[in-house]
Design goal:
heterodimer; A: 256 residues; mainly alpha; 0% strand; globular; B: 67 residues
């Protein structure tokens, strides 16, 4: 039943798939981010308590949700790489990590900027904020471990183990607002009950969440494709590809 | 539209500094990671080319020594 997946384990096929998917993800991300941002900033009604400051939600919630989503997918790739020895999955770990780190950083910064007018503090050492900060360190740890070894394969394995162990932090972040006393408000949409937000505020939020998801997908395609050719640098198909790409670059420069 | 004028929109009910700095940081960081990811390709291609040329030189040197 799953046999159709097998060819995608081949490096060359996976490389081509990355570039086939890239334009779709890119366009979808531009459209959803543009519409969602304008809708959220200009057309959504102001919050009855927080006024217009609540509009930071349209950037804070997507980056926060996807900082955890990216980490979970990175850990799943790490697990697949460790258990089934699929090289492309190991490479995907390193492709996702920098994007996830940027999302985590943005969730922390937009949270701080939102916290100042609403809580009166940029930062408090409570469970939600601290566990999200630990997520940033986990991402940086994965990136650093990956590069810490002369042999890329060893680095990938070490980074994979950290990614898998660190996934314990994801449910801690999610449930931190229920388990401990905190200034941070509870979940608005990531729960089984009906979302506790009015629909004319919810739609632009869903759009920006989709937007950041497509950005993550597009950047993962781009970065994974690079990892694949770097890993296969000595193979004939990469040699041919490098010749082709570099000669087309020099030709386009010459024609200018 | 929730705002009556452009200046209202920019003021964001006195939260303008907070809202717009968030927007600037988010799109600034996104632009940075997008540019970095796009630039990565030419960097990778050049690194592979260098690596291949080095391997080729080593191979030729070995061949000459053995003759």
């Amino acid at each position: 039943m799953w046999k159709w997946l097998h060819p995608y384990a081949k490096a060359e096929v996976a490389y081509q798939l990355c570039y086939k998917l890239l334009p779709y993800f890119s366009w979808l991300s531009v459209i959803t981010l543009a519409v969602g941002s304008v809708w959220g900033l200009a057309f959504a009604p102001a919050d009855y308590q927080q006024g217009d400051s609540f509009r930071i939600i349209y950037f804070h919630v997507p980056t926060a949700i996807l900082s955890m989503g990216a980490y979970t997918s990175m850990a799943i790739c790490a697990l697949i790489g460790m258990v089934w020895q699929i090289r492309n999955a190991e490479l995907a770990v390193y492709a996702i990590a920098p994007v996830g780190a940027v999302y985590t950083f943005l969730a922390l910064v937009t949270g701080a900027i939102w916290g100042k007018p609403m809580w009166g503090a940029w930062w408090v050492w409570d469970a939600r904020l601290t566990s999200e900060l630990i997520l940033l360190f986990l991402y940086l740890g994965v990136i650093a471990l990956y590069n810490a070894f002369e042999d890329r394969r060893t680095g990938a394995r070490a980074a994979s183990i950290l990614a898998i162990v660190g996934v314990i932090n994801v449910p801690i972040i999610h449930y931190s607002v229920e388990w401990w006393n905190t200034l941070h408000q509870g979940a608005t949409i990531t729960k089984f009950a009906k979302p506790s937000i009015s629909t004319d505020m919810l739609w632009p939020l869903l759009l920006t969440i989709a937007g950041f998801m497509f950005v993550l997908a597009a950047l993962t395609c781009l970065r994974l494709a690079n990892q694949i050719i770097l890993n296969d640098a000595r193979r004939p198909w990469v040699k041919a590809l490098v010749e082709r790409e570099l000669s087309s670059v020099s030709m386009s420069k010459a024609s200018k | 539209m929730q705002f009556n004028s452009l200046s209202d929109f920019i003021a964001m009910g006195d939260y303008g500094a907070y809202v717009w700095s968030s927007v600037a940081i988010v799109f600034g960081a996104l632009a940075w990671i997008v540019v970095d990811s796009v630039m990565l390709k030419s960097k990778t291609l050049k690194a592979i080319k260098q690596e291949q040329e080095r391997a080729e030189k080593i191979r030729q040197a070995k061949q000459q020594n053995s003759v």
